[in-house]
Amino acid sequence: MRQAGRSLPEYRSIRGVGSILEAIADPELSAEITLQPVRRYGVDAAILYSDIVVPAAAIGFGVDVAPGVGPVVEHPFERTADLQRLRPLEPEVDTPYVLETVRILARELTVPLIGFAGAPFTVASYLIEGRPSRTYTRTKALMHGDPTLWHALMERLAEMAIVSLRSQIDNGAVALQIFDSWAGALAPPDYERFVLPHSRRVFEGVADLGVPRIHFGVGTGELLGLMASAGADVVGVDWRVPLDIARTRVPAGIALQGNLDPALCFAPWEVTAEATRDVLRRNAGHPGHIFNLGHGVMPETDPGVLERVVELVHTEGRCDGTISPEESAS
Known about the structure:
Elements: H1 9-15, H2 20-24, H3 27-41, E1 46-47, H4 54-58, E2 63-66, E3 70-73, H5 91-94, H6 96-108, E4 113-118, H7 120-129, H8 137-145, H9 147-170, E5 175-180, H10 188-206, E6 213-217, H11 224-228, E7 234-236, H12 243-247, E8 255-260, H13 269-283, E9 289-293, H14 303-316, H15 325-329
Parallel strand pairs: 1-4, 4-5, 5-6, 6-7, 7-8, 8-9
Antiparallel strand pairs: 2-3
Helix pairs in contact: 3-6, 7-9, 8-9, 9-10, 13-14
């Protein structure tokens, strides 16, 4: 799903210090980091090593990713004049290193490569707040206080995501994931009014590519039906909603991704194994399921535990009728 390799010692040995944006700008390094968890764990797909703020940083908005903090913005988005700081993305000019990383991986991977972009809302929240937030007060104040400016910002970010995603597919990615990590901060009516139209625009903007499209969020149990209506083929489910309950909240034909609690990877193996099997049981053999964690891998996670989780799912998850992501995608 994301960050699968950041708990690996081999990742720490080559990642170096400083902003993740510096590592992403090195195609050989980014490709190697993408490959590491595939080699170590034997997972069924790889996700590009990058970050959702790369396009905004590349066009000069003034975004960085501070170690231990996350995305930070020197001059946050506040007023209509700030729209001029969001010019259209030109991938061949602005993010050629991302495209080269994708090309390297398309040659070297033996499993599908998933490209991704940040959903308009989550990227907007970083640009407006200026750093990670727990309350999103500035974001919500702008959303409700100046809806015209809000929608103008979201339209620009949606187009940026579309252009970035299409460039990744053009260079070798075979599936796409849209990260709306912080959409769970919104009430359903606000999501439907202020966010859904722009998420739908992103999915519509890549629909003609004919590749599987995944929609991911955290704390989005009350939004699963709305997220599914945006146009994705797969909706991510975090650990807060049991998988069988989540399936009742999305239309038939929508696959689910998830949803082992990442914290349970720190429990004794018997506990982790039982929680993994519980996810499989709740899926009940449904073919539309990609087993995953309910959020990213925590850096302190023991890689040996994740190896055992992958082995368990491969051994037990397919014998009851479940199928692999590659088969699901086809």
